[in-house]
Amino acid sequence: MMSLGNDLNITFLRLIFLVLLILSVDQSEASAMSKKKYIVLLGASVGQAWKIDALPERLKDNSDAGHYRFEYVGDFQFDKTDKLETILTRKKNRPDVIILKECAVYFPGDLEKYKGLMKEWIADCRQAGVIPIPTTVVPVVRESGIVTLGKDLIKSIIGRPISGKRLEEILQYNDWIKTYAINEKLKVLDLEAVVRISREDRSLRLDLHSGDGIHLNAAGYALLDKIVIPTLNEAVKVKYK
Question: How is the chain split into domains, by residue range?
């Protein structure tokens, strides 16, 4: 009977030890997660296809990538005011950084309104203690030729954006956001710079679009991946070893 009692006591103690070990591991994992900077990408279709939440896995060879957690939040209109407010007032998963991204499909449009909205969003982020990182807009393919001219003529008649006008306004917006960010001492995630043909020809590289001249393919997104972590490191002013 004494031996049976001892065996039960040993088994009980082992069970307690196992439970404490599991709790310790869970707490360690939770602590590690809480130390990671939480990043939200607020965007539309190009942002959705980017799959930013899987970025650390894609960049597993980059040790800095492991210091960040990512979430994509979609809003398929230029004005993302309501969705931004929802993010900024969260009680859980409140971000350290919000990447403010717009898509080429909203151009041409009311540029002055677009600029005003971006200024408001940046101010709202700062007031909430969240670091805003605006992005440049991914450019579109520069279309040319008689067929394109014919298409653009039809588009102008029915009130749809013509090819050249879209690219022109995107580049105007990108120039503005970079200048504004400098004045506001903000970091910009310059998506245009890594997918354009050159500084002289700022249209989207022909090998990087998915077929519609606007959205990116896998090679295009791979180029965007490379600039995220360096930009975040500068924005949060952290040097990881």
Answer: 1-35, 37-236
